[in-house]
Amino acid sequence: MRLAIDRHWAAAHRDPTVLTGGLKLHDIEIASEHLQGTYVIRNFAEFEAALRLFWRTARGTDPPGRTRDLIDGVAATRRVPNGAHTNAHAVREYRNALVHVREEEVDPIPIAAARGHVCRFFAFLPPTW
């Protein structure tokens, strides 16, 4: 997506007629600025869905409603080390800051780091559920 946005911006900068349907150069710039956050949100959604599936499969019960409790419960069950547990929560908090209007500041987490944090957490789950 980064390549597509960058190429479209460059093409539109050279020739504004490539912008159709009311699209403006500024719209491409806004999309570019929000690209990392968009992928963090999507990546975390997959992480949360997988944790919920793991919980149902491993415990045979409905998972907790709050994602914080879900992460804590899986971490306790699978003995996830504190660093991996804390990093998963950092991604959750960043995702929440992106999705919800919040007053508190949250440090941004690049998509590669966010992906690494949730993958590290997943490393403590069994290979098959």
Could you explain how this protein is built, in words?
This protein is mostly helical. The protein is built from 5 helices and no strands. It has helices at 2-14, 25-59, 67-78, 82-99, 111-122. The longest helix has 35 residues, at 25-59. The mean pLDDT is 94.
Q: What Rg, in angstroms, do the CA atoms define?
A: 19 Å
Unreliable stretches covering 5 or more consecutive residues: none
Largest sheet, if any? none
Shape: elongated
Strand-residue proportion: under 5%
Number of helices: 5
Provide a quick synopsis of the model:
The protein is built from five helices and no strands. It is mostly helical.
Secondary-structure topology with pairs:
Layout: H1 2-14, H2 25-59, H3 67-78, H4 82-99, H5 111-122
Helix pairs in contact: 1-2, 2-3, 2-4, 2-5, 3-4, 4-5
Provide tags for this entry:
single chain; 129 residues; mainly alpha; 5 helices; 70% helix
